[in-house]
Recover the amino acids of this structure.
């Protein structure tokens, strides 16, 4: 009997990694499908409006302050979410009470199934959003595991791509109040990231020796609901996942909506042609920088 139990134990030990790998492969496939749907919605939006949506849309309040909504609510009709699109009022900020019911609606297409804990923002998570506004601690809702690509921050670009023109660091969602047209993407749509994984943003996470560590979620910037601004400048980080302008761009930190995913070895990204690609966390920095810009003039290998 003991021999049988021992054999069963050995078989389980042998089979478990294969089962876990199969489950992760299925989750990664779902993540890829999510990004394909997002990419298709962006293409349909651009086909209707002539440009891709803006990074964020500004709402002016009677107190003179300006608050923001993201590009995601603009895509709701293209996900067959017409009822939610009608519920969400873009004349008010995402955190306004008028939009509370909308932001409490989960959008599965913006959730990577590999993210531990999901994308729910529980009421006890008090944090500061990208516009510096303290979200009320009694508000719940859902965030997103995907972020729009603004480009390489100019201070980082000066370090890792010296001599480049001042506008060459911009991504599809970078550069102010003008939406990008297909003809603007002179680097080629197959060579330009439009959306990337930035998962786990119910908290601020960074990698240290392969481990995910939770840090202060209330740190200012880019921990919004799905309807809040969700597009980030790529800073690059040191190995601590905190210090900016370091050499690591992928899986170093999700701070400021930088690229981080829970798949082994890299992240999924949507390109501007609607395709999806897996990028290794060891991707050469020059290649990554080239993929983040839409008009940098760089040459990217098919590999």
């Amino acid at each position: 009997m003991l021999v049988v139990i021992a054999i069963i134990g050995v078989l389980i030990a042998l089979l478990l990694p294969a089962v876990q790998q199969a489950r992760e492969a299925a989750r990664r496939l779902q993540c890829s499908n999510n990004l394909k749907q997002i990419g298709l919605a962006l293409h349909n939006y651009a086909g209707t409006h002539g440009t891709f949506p803006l990074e964020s849309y500004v709402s002016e309040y009677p107190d003179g302050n300006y608050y923001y909504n993201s590009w995601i609510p603009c895509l709701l009709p293209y996900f067959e979410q017409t009822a939610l699109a009608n519920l969400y009022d873009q004349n008010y900020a995402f955190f306004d009470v008028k939009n509370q019911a909308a932001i409490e609606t989960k959008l599965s297409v913006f959730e990577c199934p590999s993210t531990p804990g999901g994308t729910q923002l529980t009421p006890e998570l008090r944090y500061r959003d990208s516009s510096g506004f303290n979200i009320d601690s009694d508000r719940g809702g859902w965030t997103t595991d995907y972020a729009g690509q603004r480009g390489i921050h100019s201070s980082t670009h000066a370090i890792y791509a010296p001599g480049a023109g001042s506008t060459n660091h911009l991504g599809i969602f970078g550069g102010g109040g003008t939406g990008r047209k297909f003809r603007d993407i002179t680097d080629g749509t197959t060579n330009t990231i439009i959306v990337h994984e930035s998962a786990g943003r119910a908290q601020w996470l960074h990698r240290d020796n392969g481990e995910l560590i939770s840090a202060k979620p209330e740190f200012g910037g880019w921990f919004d609901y799905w309807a809040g601004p969700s597009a980030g400048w790529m800073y690059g980080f040191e190995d601590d996942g905190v210090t900016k302008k370091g050499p690591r761009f992928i899986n170093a930190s999700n701070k400021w909506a930088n690229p981080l995913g829970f798949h082994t070895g890299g992240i999924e990204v949507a390109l501007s042609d609607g395709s999806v690609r897996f990028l290794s966390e060891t991707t050469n920095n020059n290649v990554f920088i080239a993929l983040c810009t839409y008009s940098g003039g760089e040459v990217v290998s098919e590999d």
Q: What stands out?
A: The radius of gyration is 20 Å. The chain has six helices and eleven strands. The longest strand covers residues 146-152. Residues 21-292 form one domain.
